[in-house]
What does this fold into?
Amino acid sequence: MIELPGLGTVFGRTFQREFIMGFRNRGDLANPVIFFLCIAIFVPLGVSPDGKVLAVLAPGIIWIVALLATLLSLDRLFQSDFDDGCLQQVMVSGQPLYWIVMAKVLVHWLITGLPLTLLSPVLGLMMSLPAEGYWPMLVSLLLGTGSLSLIGAIGAALTVALRRGGLLLSLIIMPLYVPVLIFGSAVIRNAIEGFAVGGQIAVLAAFLVLSLLLAPLAAAGALRIGVQA
Amino acid sequence: MNWQWFYQLGSPKWFYQKTHYWQHWLGAFALMMLVVGAIWGLAFTPMDYKQGNSFRIIYVHVPASAVSLAGFYIMALAGAAGLIWRVKLQYTVMSVAAPIGAILTFLSLVTGAIWGKPTWGTYWQWDARITFTTVQFFLYLGIIALQQAYRNQNTADRACAMLALVGTVNIPIIYKSVDWWYTLHQPATLKLTEKSSIAPEMAYPLIWMILAYYICYVWLLISHTNAASLRRERKSSWVQALFSDRNATKVT
It folds into this structure.
């Protein structure tokens, strides 16, 4: 009987490995952030450079861009591990897949969701977001991008065995992002208009807790299906 | 206790043998119900005092919306049964339920738009129910797309069952979010006719039509399941035997 490492060790090692791998591909690391900022140039060019118009659009645009940037970065979440056979090794290792998926998603969020959240004030500045909107925007993005990464992991796992799963992944995940988008942008908009935002932030936190519980389960199930294919 | 009956529920062969004799009769019955309901609703129901004759599209629109949402749950339940007991028939039911549901959702959206023009003055309004139905349509499309993306039938079925389950968990959340979003942004000036406020002589044909749609849905589900089973099991002995018998009788 071989002594298996404990849960904490597995989670820690997976986290460490993913983190190192993430930082070795510096291009992949920067792409979502660059995309995020590119849109900030496109919206004034395409709509209007007028500060009043931009201020109305800002909450929605910032959230939509964060959502798209997350979607774009999702298809490589499990792809390289699937291609080189790491995923098969993980499956037969006897360790709970739930926590391994959780570690991977956590790293994904740390290298996409968190930088996007931290950069959002720059975007807010360029979109002339009113001053009351900044803190609610940071809080809503901090909670919301976590849910986006977790829900997206289900889509990434479902399309892992497909050669060109990127577009399909967006198609199957977008409808599931609707609640997060609605409540996330509502937090910023309500804050600008001077209403209380506690309720919406609580709902966003509830989405995060619910997706923390259920999304890795669904993603682990989907990965098993993909690997057996 | 004898569990044989339970395992038979997962067998495409057993299902085909049990249903293919009467599925056409069910289809004829469903079409008859639809025609009777349509004539009742279009010709014998009194005109609405406000909307005139345009309200009659309710007899196509409301049943389509109701059955398309119920169809999502039927699809997810079939997928869950497939995942739990690893049976072929339920996967087949799930895979044929997706296009049927998508078409019903589309019908509901189109008839809603046609109804909206004379009563609301616009084809499209960002109303909570319309938005929710559109999102539901995209959920259906996602499942169809995932089904077609995989070459391996079994993988496609299991992946779609998983997605259908995830979608089912999300449907109430999406519904409530969209509802909340709508009430936040616009006062509820436009309301679909509520069931309780509808006159009985208008409600009876509506209930009849909803029933007719459900029967029609069951018929479509059974006949499409049988057709898909024959295609999927084309290499198995029972399908081969079925078609060699037919060819033999044709020749002689």
